[in-house]
């Protein structure tokens, strides 16, 4: 193990891994796994966001490194965060909002990427720990949170609940529907690499129209729920 190939920094909500740019990737995966195996007692059952710094990685390589962490420790990685967004408050927002959906809405987690032709349908709110690729669908009677890139179809509030929402770290859906309101992307691609910068967005209904806004506590608090009028108008 090369002890200098991986340096771990942390805050209460996330981990930042500083990676040696010159170490072969296969060796780096081994070193990451070993370092987290040795530090397992320190991290225990933490639920954290993760950022990589120091070298350029493909999405597949990011996932391989994240898998090495979870395989050798009890850490649960709930999302990967772009290195330009490492502020503690951003980590806190990404992690706590995802867990709130699970705990308060009796939701569920789906671990993995949904590929073209796959459909995830549930009666409860759902957190997808992965991407939703073009041609894939997520249909929920509750809320939908995607801790990855959303490029497929998303349908929240499938029971007709206009108070539901859909959110993603990268929101580029082909089609999004909340209750009985639907919006389609102006540009659709048959193929998409999904290489977008992290830019968390939330989609919900305000004044009878679908609205997309940056993900924030204010956006959540202003969600329209059945029988209520939203606190503000416009987008």
N-to-C SSE string, H for helix and E for strand? EEHHEHEHEEEEEEEEEEEH
First and last CA, distance: 52 Å
Helical element count? 5
User: Which class do the helix and strand fractions yield?
Assistant: alpha/beta
Instruction: State the shape.
Output: elongated
Main sheet overview: 6 strands, mixed
Helix content, binned percent: 10-25%
Strand content: 25-35%
Total strands: the figure is 15
Provide the gyration radius in Å. Answer: 18 Å
Contiguous low-pLDDT stretches (5 residues minimum) are 224-235
Mean pLDDT: 78
The strand order across the widest sheet is 5-7-9-11-14-15
How does this model look, in words?
With 235 residues, the chain is of the alpha/beta class. Helices cover 23% and strands 32% of the residues. It contains five helices and 15 strands. The protein has helices at residues 25-38, 40-43, 59-72, 88-104, 217-221; strands spanning 6-10, 14-19, 47-53, 76-80, 108-111, 119-122, 126-129, 137-140, 144-150, 153-156, 166-171, 175-178, 181-184, 201-206, 209-214. The strands form three sheets. Strands 5-7-9-11-14-15 form a six-stranded mixed β-sheet, covered by helices on one side. A five-stranded mixed β-sheet has the order 6-8-10-12-13, with no helix packed on it. Strands 1-2-3-4 form a four-stranded mixed β-sheet, with helices on both faces. β12 and β13 (181-184) form a beta hairpin. α1 (25-38) runs parallel beside α3 (59-72). The longest helix is centred in the middle third of the chain and has 17 residues, at 88-104. It starts with 5 loop residues before the first strand and ends in a 14-residue tail after the last helix. InterPro entries: CAP/MinC_C, MinC, MinC_C_sf, MinC_N_1, Septum_form_inhib_MinC_C. This is Probable septum site-determining protein MinC. Cell division inhibitor that blocks the formation of polar Z ring septums. Rapidly oscillates between the poles of the cell to destabilize FtsZ filaments that have formed before they mature into polar Z rings. Prevents FtsZ polymerization. Belongs to the MinC family. One of its GO terms (biological process) is regulation of cell septum assembly.
């Amino acid at each position: 193990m090369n002890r200098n190939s991986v340096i771990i920094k942390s805050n209460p909500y996330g981990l930042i891994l500083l990676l040696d740019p010159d170490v072969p990737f296969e060796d780096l995966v081994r070193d990451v796994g070993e370092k987290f195996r040795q530090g397992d007692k320190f991290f225990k059952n933490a639920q954290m966001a993760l950022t990589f710094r120091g070298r350029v990685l493909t999405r597949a390589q990011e996932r391989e490194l994240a898998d090495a962490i979870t395989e050798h420790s009890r850490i649960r990685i709930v999302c990967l965060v772009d290195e330009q967004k490492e502020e503690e408050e951003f980590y806190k927002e990404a992690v706590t909002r995802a867990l709130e959906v699970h705990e308060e809405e009796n939701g569920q987690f789906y671990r993995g990427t949904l590929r073209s032709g796959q459909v995830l349908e549930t009666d409860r709110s759902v957190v997808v720990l992965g991407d939703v690729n073009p041609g894939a669908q997520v249909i929920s009677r509750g809320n939908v949170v995607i801790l990855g890139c959303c490029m497929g179809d998303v349908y929240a509030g499938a029971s007709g609940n206009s108070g539901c929402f859909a959110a993603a770290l990268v929101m580029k859906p082909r089609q999004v529907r909340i209750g009985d309101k639907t919006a389609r992307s102006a540009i659709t691609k048959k193929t998409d690499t999904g290489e977008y910068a992290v830019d968390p967005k939330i989609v919900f209904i305000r004044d009878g129209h679908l609205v997309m806004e940056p993900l924030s506590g204010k956006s959540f608090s202003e969600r329209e729920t059945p029988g209520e009028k939203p606190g503000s108008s416009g987008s």
